[in-house]
Amino acid sequence: MLERELIVSNKLGLHARATAKLVQTLSGFAANATLVAKGREVNAKSIMGVMLLAAGQGTPVTVRVDGADEAQALAAVVELFERNFDEA
Q1: Which stretches make up the HPr domain (predicted)?
Q2: What is the pLDDT of residues 18-39, one digit of tens each?
């Protein structure tokens, strides 16, 4: 299992479009993925689960991945966060 803490830095936080990009990114990997924020832990491959976190800008989020391609999955998530979910 790998994990990394990231900060939600895009202006609107993990809103619907950003959440959909996250779920879509992770759907290509076999590894299980979990997001932890604000005392909640959710399946990172579930749009509804991620939306329930209500993680706004500046929220620290821990990403945990576990499985055969966990390193690649984590790298893809880190890249997505670093690109601010492709938002301006």
Answers
A1: 1-88
A2: 999 999 999 999 999 999 999 9
